[in-house]
Amino acid sequence: MGDLSASCIESDAVKRRASGPIRRLTSSPTREAQEVYERALFYDSNNPDIYYNLGVVFLEQGKALQALAYLDKALEFDPDHTQALMNSAILIQESGIAHLRTTAAARLMKLLAKDERNERVFFNLGMLAMDDGDVASAEAWFRKAVDVREDFRSALFNLALLLSEARRPLEAVPFLNQLLKHHGDHIKGLILLGDIYINHMKDLDAAEKLGRHGFWDETGRRLLSIETGAAWGNTATMFRRPVLCAASDEARPGRLRVEECAEWASLIKTQKPYF
Hints:
Layout: H1 13-19, H2 30-43, H3 48-60, H4 64-77, H5 82-95, H6 101-114, H7 119-131, H8 135-148, H9 153-165, H10 169-182, H11 187-199, H12 204-212, H13 215-226, H14 230-238, H15 240-245, H16 258-271
Helix pairs in contact: 2-3, 3-4, 4-5, 5-6, 5-7, 6-7, 7-8, 8-9, 9-10, 9-11, 10-11, 11-12, 13-14, 14-16
């Protein structure tokens, strides 16, 4: 497998923002909300919550730099504003603003001082470490996140991917099994586990067992419903074939010929960066 890339690493940012304790003053569309908060600032210009909510509005509008400016303003008035600390750090990491990574890490460490077992803080520190190329630190932070929350989807997958890319694929297997125990339809997790079974463990029976459990058919249906590209939907239903043909030189019924395997692998490689 190739180097770690943004297309492989799984971000939890959208789910984190949706599930986080974001304080809203209105449920209006974002433009109307923006106008409400801007009027509120006229009467209460020192209120960190108003700046924070404006930051959230601009974030939802896709205006990352403006969002960050308002989150920073919230922190000027309340340096301990938990949501502003968390979301500004996430925004810095997600936006790839390299010169602010130290700031993001400092804000996360401040949150960690408040709550020593905050899995979201651990995860985002791991993501920052990945961006800095500090694999050892990233691994340590992801492990802490998983220790706190055993079903943490993104932390489990990113930890497994990190271990696999660090030439320690066997260490990735328990985390992939843990991931699939809680999230049986995790597509990239299934693919990575199948790859390890075939190319590193040479365990075709284990790879085929994944297929017998019905993951691929179920995943195929779900992919077709959530992916816009028909090609990737086809890839999902095809993935069983690379599994079954990995040792096509062995005389087992149902194996694809070597030529067919090469065709499938070539097609899949063009459809998804992971391959």
